[in-house]
Amino acid sequence: MEALRQQFFNFAIMERALPLLLMGLRQTALLCLLLIPLGLFGGLLSALLSRSRVRPMRWLAMVAIDFFRAVPPLVLLIFIYSGLPFAGLRPSPLTAVAVAFFLNTSSYYGEIYRAGIESIPGGQWDAARSTGLSAGQAMIYVVLPQAVRNVLPDLISNTVEVVKLTSIASVVALPELLYSADMARSLTFNSSPLVLAAAIYLLMLWPVVRLVSRLERRIAT
Amino acid sequence: MEFHSAFLEAFFKWELIQRYFPAIMKGVGVTIEIAAAVVFTGICAGLALAVIRAFRARSINVVIVLFADAFRALPPLVLVLLVYFGLPNLGINLPSFAVLWIVLSLVLAAFCEEIFWAGILSIAKGQWEAARSTGLTFVATLAYVVLPQAVRLTVPPITNRTIAITKNTALGTVIGVGEILNQATTAQSFSGNATPLMMGAIAYVILFIPVVVLGRFIETRFRWRRA
Q1: A207 touching B, CB under 8 A?
Q2: Nearest-CA distance from A139 to chain B in Å?
Q3: Domain A2-220 is classified in which CATH homologous superfamily?
């Protein structure tokens, strides 16, 4: 029991590691501010492309979506970070993370948007177009607002996944929360910094996870 | 032309493909083994937890909900590192593949518990009442009336979540599990060439594209119907 406290809940070590972890948390927050909008935008793009009237465009979008959903994000990230230098490109950790996340999360957000758009009955389109709205306007003012509302729980829950996924940036030495915690762990030979990092992730994400559960249940009943 | 051959040299060097093909295949085997083990234990544990929750024993349910919430909110990589580096300090030494298996199973169980529970809740109260009034016990009602309907409803979300979590087997590379990514990065640093990485990526695509397509098929086949 004492060993457990010493190794996992050592407050003296947590206190010493806290400044480092807060710097990491800052990086994680900045990453989220960059990656979530990037994914939401890319997702919308891929959803619209996968419903394009131009057949090759549509196929290309569908193949890309399935491809990037099949490759684990960590594989994509490592491929970009340590594979591309062999082709003469040397992405910084941040660029590699941004590109890998853009490709991965856009595909997931894209599938969600697509389900949302498909949940809107065709009559909405026809009605919107018959009032004189252009196809683009009908999409932006009529279909998308309803589509997004229908899939809001999925969008939020995918966003939780994106925030959790930022932890893999530690593998390419981007000093975010997990990287800082693991550095503190290897300096102190003690797991308490990792426990502290886990507590910070919980503090950030638990309320959102609860919210998603409630939203999903409201829709299910 | 020159760029073209340089590209082939860096990403598709035939000699290296031959040399590292066995290693990558070994990684494929490890990935499949761990993924299969995680899918089995994760889904079974999740279903068991949801069934226990259906008995509505307050104190037990609080524990289940806390478990499910925590393991849905924590990044799996944090858990992997915590268990891998933490347990030896308590005198428990687990091989790295066991750490990966346990952590991913717990994460999958947490998500599956929530999904199965949502499925159980979605079965109309009248179904419960009708079953009980025919003389079925609570357990029989759950087993023969509610669960068969609830599980059917949950097939698409369970499939999607399971696919997402089996892809997390790649996280094992960080703690040295010899799965595909690990074999590929090891071979890459030995050979100083990106060909093994390309082979690893292709192995993942070949392994998971059918799974993703199957998931899409299941999603349309079992579209969420209100009971």
Answers
A1: no
A2: 24
A3: MetI-like (1.10.3720.10)
